[in-house]
Write a structure and sequence with these properties.
Layout: H1 24-46, H2 55-59, H3 67-102, H4 114-127, H5 134-155, H6 163-187, H7 195-198, H8 209-227, H9 229-235, H10 239-244, H11 249-271, H12 277-286, H13 298-324, H14 328-331, H15 334-352, H16 372-395, H17 403-410, H18 416-450, H19 462-476, H20 482-504, H21 511-536, H22 541-548, H23 557-576, H24 578-584, H25 589-593, H26 598-620, H27 626-638, H28 642-666, H29 675-693, H30 695-700
Helix pairs in contact: 1-13, 3-8, 3-11, 3-12, 3-13, 4-5, 4-6, 4-11, 5-6, 5-11, 6-21, 6-29, 8-11, 8-13, 9-13, 12-13, 12-15, 13-15, 15-21, 16-28, 18-23, 18-26, 18-27, 18-28, 19-20, 19-21, 19-26, 20-21, 20-26, 23-26, 27-28, 28-29
């Protein structure tokens, strides 16, 4: 088998099934233990609810003496329990199959964007007021999930090009699909009411009709995967070996992926996307391998992963209602708990693995060498385009202006109407320009330190930390001022960065480990943000959604000030460290030989990136892809030396966010599209092209 990961110690990675005899009694013992645990969790689950019916009332049903308890059991608790059972089984089996096909322990319906694709398909229909029965909705979700999975698998060379590439391809695809979903939620707020919470996975069921239609689909797909288990065992030995033994590798992979996506789509249709169950369940089963090696055989692994998935889903629901109260089971999505649990598992896995995939190369490795004249020409051209974009931002919007109006406004000669519009508009334009420059500068720094052209500040958890701090303050202190929001967002970003950096440190800093742990922190942070919104401010989700989508709406000069200060202070520092960044982007040995204090330089550089990102997020909310696209485009234009990359990247970032903000304010005026969504929709095709272009080298290094 192609070894994708270089383990530091024994770990529950995807690996071939053991050859020869295995201890059947031990495997049976594992099954018995899993089933007993499941029955205990299910029994506890049935005793919880918003009514006063408890365990003793349910026990009296044996004698048929309590009609009220029977009605509650049939109408509310059994549907919720059975939904958890069906979804956990589906996601657990799907995760096991995807990890085996990709030969990657971090493959799952979440990391392959299957859940995001299925979620977008369902929300797209709901946004236009169309209500579909469970089976047609499941078919639509299947198409969305299949399309997303096919794209991610293609971009990551079937998942075998390395864990980091798989995570980056999946996260970029999921971010783009989630941006589209969030756009629909914002534009069609009334038609999609309640779908934000549902988007994190809720077990609340009004009746049994959807479950009755989807349960046979889940059962048939799960059984088909189990029957496919022997072929998956052989496939795990390697493509060449499997072909020699008579296995059609391509057909087996395709069938396994389709069945896994069918299971994931059915789960999303039933309860919404419940996060990371498909990642955690197979990992937990593989942890039992030292006691029962037979669990690596897929005919044991797949059903055990399904049972583990059920335990995770029902156990998370039990924990949620035990800690937060019975009503929390209705208001707060169960997927929030599973995502937090899954983020922890992902971070734990990342600390135990070291990926040497093809994304670990100098970010400027393929950049062309340009002359100084060409560099000046590029800088001048982008600067002119930025000026044009700023002027366009002042002119366009729900009220269109003329250049003469701006001239009169500068001279304080406009009427009250135009004065009001331009007074509101200029802080938005300045905020977009400065935030774009800050995010691009942070992205160039992160890519140099990580030696990864696909890294960006958001993937390191910095954005989620800033977002969590700001949303928490907006939720608990609605009257908080601008400086308070900026300060708390900055503190959140610094704390998130410190946690990610500390967790990634293990006798040194591995850039791949840093990215994977940052991805886990990002997912965990977004889950906590969802929890805060639905638990404490459920009737004002549009406010938080707009902020999380990256918007300049209502910005003031005071909110722009922290970004300006950060740029004034940190840009000279980053420029002064341009030589060190050039050396860091090469390897670990060259900087040490030339006298660079490697770890201190990394820490200072990443700290500067965290501060730049936090101030940008505090001013305009969460905007992704700028820190990825702008530095990479800058290197493609002027080469890999940071003395040239830094100014071009900053200008490109400012130009990108400025144009996105103007488009968002203009195309559907008076309604608005948050700038972050526009950037994501523009940046995703570039990111996909970037991954696809490097796919050949990824495949060649396998």
């Amino acid at each position: 088998m192609n070894q994708l990961l270089a383990p530091a110690q024994p770990e529950p990675a995807a690996r071939p099934a053991p050859v020869g005899r295995v201890s059947a009694p031990r495997v049976v013992g594992v099954f018995v233990l899993a089933v007993v645990t499941l029955l205990v969790v299910a029994a506890v689950h049935l005793t919880q609810g918003t009514s006063s019916v408890g365990a003793l009332d349910l026990l009296r049903l044996i004698t048929g003496s309590d009609d009220e308890a029977a009605r509650i059991l049939v109408a509310s608790r059994l549907p919720r329990l059975l939904a958890g059972l069906a979804v956990g089984l589906a996601l657990g089996c799907a995760g096991a199959a995807l990890q085996s096909v990709a030969r990657n322990p971090l493959a799952s319906p979440d990391t392959l964007a299957v859940n995001a694709g299925a979620h977008l398909a369902i929300v797209s229909v709901a946004a236009f007021g169309v209500t579909l029965p469970a089976l047609p909705a499941g078919g639509l979700a299947l198409l969305g999930g299949l399309a997303a999975a096919a794209l991610v698998m293609a971009l990551s060379a079937g998942g075998q090009a390395g864990t980091t590439r798989l995570i980056l391809a999946g996260s970029a695809t999921a971010m783009a699909l989630s941006s589209l979903t969030m756009l629909l939620l914002l534009l069609f707020e009334q038609a999609t009411l309640g779908l934000f919470a549902w988007g994190s996975g809720s077990l609340v069921q009004s009746d049994m009709r959807a479950l009755a239609q989807l349960a046979p689909v889940i059962a048939v797909a799960a059984v088909a995967l189990v029957l496919l288990g022997h072929r998956l065992d052989i496939l795990a030995l390697g493509d060449d070996t499997a072909t020699v033994l008579g296995i059609d590798v391509r057909r087996t992979r395709l069938l396994a992926v389709v069945l896994a996506v069918v299971l994931s789509a059915a789960a999303v249709t039933l309860t919404g996307p419940i996060g990371f169950v498909g990642l955690c369940a197979p990992v937990i089963v593989r942890l039992l391998a030292p006691l029962a090696p037979g669990v690596y055989r897929h005919r044991a692994l797949i059903p055990l992963a399904g049972i583990a998935g059920v335990i995770i889903v029902l156990g998370s629901d039990v924990l949620l209602r035990a800690v937060m109260g019975a009503q929390a089971g209705v208001d707060i999505p169960t997927g929030v708990v599973t995502t937090l649990f899954g983020a922890g598992i992902l971070i734990w896995l990342a600390r135990r693995h070291r990926d040497a995939g093809p994304t670990r190369r100098p970010p400027g490795g393929h950049a062309a060498v340009r002359s100084a004249v060409f560099h000046r020409l590029v800088v001048g051209t982008i600067a002119v385009l930025l000026v044009v974009a700023v002027v366009a931002g002042m002119l366009f919007g729900d009220t269109w202006m003329l250049v003469g109006d701006i001239v009169n406004w500068v001279q304080s000669r406009t009427g009250p109407g135009y004065t009001f519009v331009l007074d509101q508009r200029w802080p938005r334009v300045v905020a977009a320009v400065l935030a774009g420059a800050a995010l691009a500068l942070a992205g160039a720094t992160v890519q140099a330190v990580c030696r990864n052209p696909l890294a960006e500040p958001g993937i390191l958890g910095i954005t989620a930390g800033a977002g969590l701090g700001a949303v928490a303050l907006l939720t608990f202190v609605p009257a908080a001022g601008v400086l308070a929001i900026s300060g708390v967002a900055g503190l959140g970003a610094i704390l998130a960065f410190a946690l990610v950096y500390g967790a990634a440190w293990r006798g040194g800093l591995s850039s791949d480990r840093l990215v994977l742990i940052g991805f886990g922190a990002w997912q965990g942070g977004m889950a906590v943000i969802t929890f805060l919104i639905v638990a404490y401010d459920p009737w004002n989700t549009a406010k938080a959604l707009t902020w999380l989508s990256g918007s300049t709406y209502g910005r003031t000069a005071w909110q722009v000030l922290p970004v300006a200060i950060a740029l004034l202070v940190l840009t000279p520092a980053v420029v002064a460290a341009r030589r060190e960044l050039d050396l860091l982007s090469l390897d670990d040995d060259t900087p040490r030989v030339l006298g660079v204090r490697l770890e201190r330089t990394r820490l200072v550089a990443l700290g500067a990136a965290a501060l730049l990102t936090s101030t940008a997020v505090s001013a305009v909310g969460v905007i992704g892809f700028v820190g990825l696209v702008a530095p990479h485009a800058a290197r493609a234009l002027v080469g890999g030396r940071h003395t040239r990359v830094i100014p071009v990247a900053a200008l490109l970032g400012a130009l990108l966010v400025s144009l996105a903000d103007t488009l968002g304010r203009t195309v559907i005026a008076p309604a608005q599209i948050p700038a972050g969504l526009v950037v994501a929709l523009v940046g995703t095709p570039y990111f996909v092209w970037l991954l696809w272009r490097s796919r050949a080298s990824a495949t060649a290094t396998r």
